[in-house]
């Protein structure tokens, strides 16, 4: 491989995690997509979708179930109906506010070496977020719980391709609902050294995440505002509604300079009209409404344009993910995000009920949609199964392999005198082979991407080994990775401060409830 | 979905095969890739690879193990070493000959409705070719045989997304080696109505295919030369060798106006240097040498630029397919093919030993490489397993699903007043839903792509149904498709003529052997 030398050097620098327990991975690296995104919409189509979105905002409106949000919007000149919460936004106001949002944001966790950029050509992958259930081949499907939560974090920390921790990789329903976000943040900050996504159901949970990240980094809230470290996803209750908790969460994040990812979750035929163009119109209008609110809260605060548009099975109403329509929407939404100069978040979902060929192809369709759409953040990139109802240990491994494939595909091809290899070609006779060529031997170790999960043994050797399919191999791999997991070092005084923060907040929450 | 109405109309026209045995498929359609191919190589890199390829042809040379080929090349002014068979080709000669080859070729089988174009923006998918083994979940892995050969053809004929029959979908080793190509061609022409790929090991086998296709179409050989109907793949014995049978086959096809697909099979580190740039240099030089020979044989004869570059596991020497390097090579080779104005053939391989998640993701990586590379023909598109050593019934179904996904992704997004759906958006209140919207109901039936294999049932329903994974479902699907297979009508006199041709040729072959 042309970039073998480069990879080896980076590998040397990265050190830890490069090959652990005989599992070799490319090192942590900042990924960039060097190729222009696909233009699946013509310039005229893009403008037609933009224009219709503006008409939705101007003529139809978006509902905000938050008096404070309505105040901000009214003060900026939006047409606000206090009774219904419906807000109509002039396209001039929208353009003016959207232009204030930065094109890129860098998020810094407690380990500055794990900072991520979201914007430009960057490409960042996150762990799955939010499933109520968890599954692995040994223990089957079960309700989310804190032990599995922690193990999934340890697994993500062991995988260099998982850059960022999603919100509640699995819901720990064995913990009290009103304070479990504190336990989750504490685990995020002690078991991993990466950025994470906070729960923004209301302002308080967002503030807890910001304060705890500040403690773990040893910085003030003001410093965090200038150098953010957590994000959240603001889902719109499509069609056209921001509920109170989402609006409050968005404003709290913006006030503190932390980026929200405004993501309408839109299943065509259910939450939007059935046509892809209309789904893009509506989703775009909703996302921009959220972006406007973020900028009215704090001009220039970072905000990320999200799109999660897929289709349903119109016979059963069942949601579908990673479909051709899904991939087309992912590409088109990237064009919209770039039209507004905003960082773009896509996702990596599928509808499979087990980690099988369907799980692989739906996920890879979604992933190519994200990559061709120029996505900066691929959310739910590792571990999503069953339409998001289950976090799967084996799926984390399968996805890490898919993410590594894409990351490797995006490494530019080296073309220079050395890699063009004319002398090497000259030296081997017609019908000969290059196994022993000095050109080969000099590049032997790192010539090619070495997969995590793929099995390239011949059929007979594979049979002798028990004929394990990819899912069975993934089962073995996550266990080996967990065995070799090492908790990233955190200064004892910061850990103590985190412990104290959680204890204090839990007491306060208990008092409020009493 | 925006193109639902259009699809329904086409479905109505296509009629047979649209929904058989409760298996619904999009109808046969001519696929075009409307998006510009990815430019993974810069213009400078592309020229560096071209220039180095020219130096390989000029300075290093390519061996042709055929006196007739050497005669043709010498007469054209190439520097020919008769003793070694090594031929050095001046870049001016190469450019002059390559420029004579057409940019596109239309292949017509006995059913003119199943004609395919290879060139321009067209995209054609073929059945797998050449595996020695066959596999399905019920009967396991076994040696290739004529019964399975015929069943795989019936399956391909039942799938509208398989446009073209590869050479020997599985080798029928239960038939005599010297005449089995006749039985295969006979089956291709009676069990399917599609174009097929002939065996071009020597001129005779190629001629048999051309004559039999002419009989099935009811045309003369001269008419076939003007309107070709069969192809062959000419593999180079890389590095830099055309063996006698391949050179003779290529010339026989060109003489009769049938396109050869000149495809160096190059595993980096084995048949080429280990770097991707050098593999492209060598593969390009080899492919162009074959193109030159085709044009010297018959100027203007159709010929297709093939590339099949992948890597090996350098620890074991095992071949790998559908890797990141493979996909990069597939994209880059498309840029080379277009530089020379030639139709481009890519492939759809994987190295998995069973139809699992690996089989899906390696295949889909290869397929995206082909699509982003602007491939016109994706060879081995359906059924390839185990590095090409096995044709798999279940893999045919999985691949048909992947091909349908890609075909659907490439259908342009409709953006017009109707699909933009402003009025539909206006009619649904915030937080409402679109299931009952007139806009939805009017498009209900054909709004979205309906998958062949994907299972979108919820977890509970899927469990109740026995929790079948994608491979188990594929097993059920190919059996249902075979049950409902209908042999395409062939005029009795043509069938008798085909029978007679095969009988006559078998006698002749037996006489020669005696």
Explain this structure to me?
In chain A, helix 2 packs across helix 10 (276-297). Chain A contains 19 helices and 22 strands. With 514 residues, the first copy, chain A, is an alpha/beta fold. In chain A, the strands form five sheets. In chain A, strands 3, 9, 12, 13, 14, 16, 17, 18, 19 and 20 form a ten-stranded mixed β-sheet that branches. The first copy, chain A, is globular and about 80 Å long. In chain A, a hairpin with a 3-residue loop joins strand 10 (133-136) and strand 11. Chains A and B meet through helix 2, helix 10, helix 11, helix 12 and helix 13 of A and helix 2, helix 10, helix 11, helix 12 and helix 13 of B.
Taken as a percent bin, the fraction of beta residues of chain A is 15-25%
- Most extensive protein-chain contact, per-chain counts: A-B, 122 and 122 residues
- The low-confidence parts of chain A are 1-18
What is the count of DSSP helices of chain A, taking H or I runs of 4+ residues? 19
What gyration radius of chain A follows from the Cα positions, in whole Å?
Answer: 24 Å
Oligomer: homodimer
Structural class computed from helices and strand pairing of chain A: alpha/beta
- Overall average residue pLDDT of chain A: 94
Q: Main sheet of chain A?
A: 10 strands, mixed
β-strand number of chain A: 22
Distance, first to last CA of chain A = 64 Å
Helical fraction of chain A: 40-55%
Sum up the overall morphology of chain A in one term. globular
Any descriptors?
homodimer; 514 residues; alpha/beta; four-stranded mixed β-sheet; 45% helix
